[in-house]
Write the structure tokens for this entry.
Amino acid sequence: MQKPDYKMMLEQLKALVSQDPNYVTALSSAAALLWESLEDINWAGFYLVRGEILAVGPYQGKVACIHIPRGKGVCGTAWAKNEIQLVPDVHAFPGHIACDSASNSEIVLPILNNGAVAAVMDIDSPSFSRFSEEDRDGLAQLCDHLSRTLIW
Ligand code: SME
């Protein structure tokens, strides 16, 4: 597997968001950027905080769960704890929500608006332990940029 160039991805993301920072527009482009830049993934996109649930937002991949309650699954846990979740084996994660049975590992990162979680970035892989610390750091930089620039 070729290593993703997170520096280039950040530059591309910055260029996309600067054209239109509206969250629907920018996250749609961000989902497509993740999808075309990362190998060995089967879902890449965003869930958006709406009251006490996460509602599915822009994504690439198979049709997925529409709503996820706060604190449930990997996404709901990342939201409730405001913490990145790097899960090498989703089947070992308590309460994991299986939207696509092909998924075996997953990474979820919070995106903030004024200090509160407003969305999460979610990427799934059919391979176990697909996501490394390098992926975590690179994706965290993308999410930091989104947290600072999106207009909700
Ligand atoms: N597996 C996630 C649900 C979302 S899908 O992976 C697209 C979870 O447990 O939160």
